[in-house]
Amino acid sequence: MYVLLRQLSRIRRDADISVPKRRISAAMRHVDSGSCNGCEQELEALSNPFYDLQRYGITMVASPRHADILVVTGTVTTRMEGPLRLAYGAMPEPRIVAAIGNCAIGAGVIGEAECLVGDVSMVLPVDIRIPGCPPTPDAIASALLRALGESSTSLPR
């Protein structure tokens, strides 16, 4: 194992892969409040080796009790309004809410219907708004890192 770690260190040094200067640690909880799953696919791409958001210390967690960031996708439906408020209430302070995609930020993609509450800001205070249908993984990662104080960090390629 030690040999493999030394080889990985040498490969990173030779490839000049930048490592974030300041380590942050944040846990994200995702809630789909009524989307088409386009944003979920882009959000899932953040965990693949190409984007690798975990190298910045940002991971997905299963429980809102362990989360620092509540990531919400889709227009909020009447049936998801209650669970969304419960997830937000279970999060420890300080908490950040990120609305991902045009539906979540209220761009009116879905329209108006009796079964829809509206955008996320009608239910929860939103700190981060990431537009796009769906937004790219780069846009999502950059917005999250900016919100966590990693403004000088750019995603290396």
Description of the molecule:
- The chain is of the alpha/beta class.
- The protein has one domain (24-147): 3-Layer(aba) Sandwich (Rossmann fold), CATH 3.40.50.
- 32% of the residues lie in helices and 18% in strands.
- The protein has helices at residues 2-15, 38-45, 78-90, 102-105, 137-147; strands at 26-32, 58-60, 69-73, 76-77, 96-100, 116-118, 128-130.
- The strands form two sheets. Strands 2-1-3-5-7 form a five-stranded parallel beta sheet, sandwiched between helices.
- The longest helix has 14 residues, at 2-15.
- The chain is elongated.
- 32% of the residues are buried.
- The model has no long low-confidence stretch (mean pLDDT 83).
Task: Tally the beta strands.
Answer: 7
Shape: elongated
Kindly state the percentage of residues in helix: 25-40%
Structural class: alpha/beta
Mean pLDDT: 83
- Provide the domain count: 1
| Backbone CA Rg | 17 Å
CATH architecture: 3-Layer(aba) Sandwich
How many helical elements? Answer: 5
Oligomeric category: single chain
Low-confidence stretches: none
Q: What profile does the largest beta sheet have?
A: 5 strands, parallel
Quick overview of this protein structure:
The chain has 157 residues and is an alpha/beta fold. Helices cover 32% and strands 18% of the residues.
